[in-house]
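Quick one, T. Sequence first:
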Amino acid sequence: MDDIENITIEYQKSQSRLQALALQKAQIAAEKEEYKKALEEVEKAQGKVYTSRGNVIVETSKDEAIKAIKDEQDSIDLKASIVEKQYAEAAKKDQELREKINSLIKGKQ
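Structure tokens:
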């Protein structure tokens, strides 16, 4: 295979990685929204509050539920920043590969 074919294959892999990371970003955004809504609901709750522990739903205090949700939000925020960094790096590599392909094509003309 020549350079254009190798770089094209690498570019296709890069595109797949970008799509996978974009999907992860969307999933994380949806999770963040779910936890935001859960926090709002728990904060305005009156009386008993329940949370899930594995496959079991148990009663908990409002403060414990809020703390658990905030801990999950922190975890998701960390995951989001990692995926965002990976996406930026992948996008940069994708752009570099695109430029290599274009320069190789122009060089063959």
